[in-house]
Amino acid sequence: MKNIKVSVIVPIYNSEKYIRPCLESLIKQTLKPIEIILVNDGSTDRSIDQIFDLIEKYNFIRLIEIENSGAAEARNKGLALACGNYISFVDSDDFVHSTFLEKLYQEAENKKLDIICGSFEATYKNKVSKKMERNNELLRAGVQEGIVLFKKQIQLRNYIPMIWAYMYRREFLMKNGLWLSPKTIHEDEEFTPRVWNLAKRAKIIETFEYIYQREHEDSIIESRDESSVLDLENILISFMKYEENLSGKSKESFDYALLYVLDHYVYYGRMTKTLNKLLIKGIYSRLSRAKILTFKQKIKYFLIIKSTWLYFLVQNYQE
């Protein structure tokens, strides 16, 4: 196939209950031509059996088999083999509406964007769904440098880190060496800030074509164990090193990435009662100098540094 508009990369790991509706929703996309790259990350269930007839039927679907390496490596493998002008990632336990790719692609192509970020609708166990609405200030911003939109999203508490909410120009990713960090649980939180930091032309739109299924609890996203907390700790350390090479507006914007991940680290750390006070103190000092902490955040991190036990006690009492 020539002149492929979008390569859709779908990592698969033990998704036999969800993979067929996911793949069928991609086959029904109104945007043509596309390619669908399925990366089977060493599944031990019947995931591939559930969709083998579809793989055989459609020549724009490719199946790649790899040993179990994690979602980040599976996505990287698909990215390395992709031929489309733009890249989209879809999780194998979600599905999309038929115009999902077309809405993002048309806007990205018309505006010559490096990245475009949409939105999503989340569904829960009780069958209730909730749309992630974008702040009007972000929608009115139009095409901006990534560092401008990223900072504004954190300030407005309207940031989406999940990589499936985005469409990326493949040349932009390749030119800047933007790959997902392997062996990372929270790969979205690590990858997305770096993308925003390097994008010269970016835009946010509101579209609810992606259906994020939250009703199943065996997802990596739902993990809240110590390995998840340690993963966020490692991301914070890598971000501090990454920021050492930044300056000016890029450095200022990336301070907000540190703040976002730090907030998540503390939130998850409360569940396991494991927090690295020395690391938090170093980041708190850096963010204080940058003058981006709210009064409430200053109090929170000051309390954690003085006594994590007291902080946990206060939080439990407030709940």
TrEMBL record:
CDD domains: Glyco_tranf_GTA_type. Keywords: Glycosyltransferase, Transferase. InterPro entries: Glyco_trans_2-like, Nucleotide-diphossugar_trans. Residues 7-165 form the Glycosyltransferase 2-like domain. It holds the Pfam family Glycos_transf_2. GO terms for molecular function: glycosyltransferase activity. Gene3D superfamilies: Spore Coat Polysaccharide Biosynthesis Protein SpsA, Chain A (3.90.550.10). It comes from the Bacteria. This is Glycosyl transferase family protein.
